Amino acid sequence: MVVEVCQLIKGILQPEWWAMENPVGRLPRYIGKWNYTFNPCDYGDPWTKRTCMWGDHVQPRKNPVEPTEGSKHWRLSPSPQRAALRSETPPGFARAFFEANP
């Protein structure tokens, strides 16, 4: 499983910090409870999609906005791009994470 390989690599390389994210789902049964969760609206993107974070890193500082677009990923029409669009990292969180973990 990909998660097991990531954990193995982390153990071998012993990085200064590491992070793993996954929407609420099956991952907790493999690596335990998350450190924290967030929605994109916590970091400036106006929609919701609860995501869990694991790792040894600095939690980014929040910049909350109203989730005026709701859970927009549930409204995506079926298409070949749907899975890729649903799995994109929210830009506000990515920027905040980068700034908190140089």
Helices and strands: which structural class? Answer: alpha+beta
- Look at the structure and give the mean pLDDT: 90
Largest beta-sheet characterization: 3 strands, antiparallel
H-E order:
HEHEEHH
Main sheet: strand order: 1-3-2
Radius of gyration: 15 Å
Distance between the termini: 28 Å
Outline the low-pLDDT stretches.
none
What is the count of β-strands?
Answer: 3
Bin the strand percentage: 5-15%
Q: Looking at the structure, what is the overall shape?
A: globular
Total of helices? 4
Helix share bin: 25-40%
Explain what the structure shows:
A three-stranded antiparallel sheet has the order 1-3-2, with no helix packed on it. The protein has four helices and three strands, in the order H-E-H-E-E-H-H. The longest helix is centred in the first third of the chain and has 12 residues, at 2-13. It is an alpha+beta fold.
Question: Which keywords apply here?
Answer:
globular, alpha+beta, 3 strands, 102 residues
Give a nutshell description of this structure.
The protein is α+β, with helices and mostly antiparallel strands. Helix content is about 30%, strand content about 15%.
Which helices and strands occur, and which strands form pairs?
Blueprint: H1 2-13, E1 18-23, H2 28-31, E2 36-38, E3 51-56, H3 82-87, H4 91-100
Antiparallel strand pairs: 1-3, 2-3
